[in-house]
C-alpha cells in the first residue's frame, strides 16, 4: 500500500515537472537605480525582489547582480492539486493561491500557474523528483534531467566575465561608497506632471512633461535649498528643482511620471542625504 502511494506521488511529480517552463532574469544595478525603480520596471514589488535576493534592507549598489523575476510557468494537468504542486516545489498552498490570485484551492486542467522560486531551489527540486522514480528507465531520465538542470546553473557562470567588473579595484569605491552629506528625516509624498492645472514646469525651469525620466523633488527651500543634489531613501539620487504650496518644513514631494506609481508611493517617512 505504501509503495503504491509512493508511486502515485512520484508519477504526479513527474507530470508536474514536465509541464513547467522556467525563466529567471538577472540584471546589473546601475548608478542611481533603487529597488523601487526596479520593482516598477519589472512589474514586481520591493519586498519580492528583497526576498528573491536575500536582502535585509533597501540598499543596492552599482554593479550588484539582482534576480528580478524567478518564475516557473506550469500548465495544470488532469489530477493535479495545489497540495501536490506545493509538495513538489516546496512552497505553501496559500502562496500558490496568492501568486495566482485564486479565491479557492480548485484548479482546472489546461490552466496555467506561476510559481516564484530561485534557481538553486529549482535545480534541487528537479533532482529530487527524478530520484523518486526508482525503475531502470529512471536512470536515463535522471541523466537527461541533470543535463537540463545544469543549464540554468551554467548561465550565471557564462555571465561571470561581468563579475570582474564588480570586483575590479577601480569599481570598488563606487560600489561600496555611501552618499555623504547632511542627513535628515522627512515625510515624502509623490506627484506627477499631469495633475489638473499643472504646467509641468518646475520652479527652476525643468520641463517634466518633456523629460519624464528626470529625478526631481519638490522641497521647502528653507530646509533643502533649491538646486541641491540629494539622495532619497527608496527613490535614489535627485535634484531639488521644485517647491509646492503644501510642502512645509521637513516634507518633500518626489516626481514620478505615472499617476499609479504616485498613488502606490503614498505617504512615508524616509531619510534624505543633502549632498551639496
Protein model, in words:
- The protein has 276 residues and is of the alpha+beta class.
- The protein folds into two domains: 2-24 and 70-167, LysM domain (Membrane-bound Lytic Murein Transglycosylase D, Chain A); 178-274, RlpA-like domain (Barwin-like endoglucanases, Beta Barrel).
- The protein has helices at residues 2-18, 35-41, 46-52, 82-89, 93-99, 119-131, 137-158, 162-167, 171-176, 259-265; strands at 20-23, 26-28, 65-67, 71-75, 112-116, 182-191, 216-218, 229-232, 236-242, 251-255, 268-274.
- A six-stranded mixed β-barrel has the order 6-10-7-9-8-11.
- Helix 6 (119-131) runs antiparallel to helix 7.
- The radius of gyration is 24 Å and the shape is elongated.
Shape annotation? elongated
The biggest beta sheet is recorded as: 6 strands, mixed, barrel
Number of domains: 2
CATH superfamily descriptor of the largest domain: LysM domain
Query: What sequence of helices (H) and strands (E) makes up the elements?
Result: HEEHHEEHHEHHHHEEEEEHE
* Count of alpha and pi helical runs: 10
Number of strands: 11
Query: Which sequence of strands runs across the widest sheet?
Result: 6-10-7-9-8-11
* Fraction of residues in H or I helices: 25-40%
Percentage beta strand:
15-25%
> Average pLDDT across residues?
74
Short description:
The protein is an alpha+beta fold. It has ten helices and eleven strands.
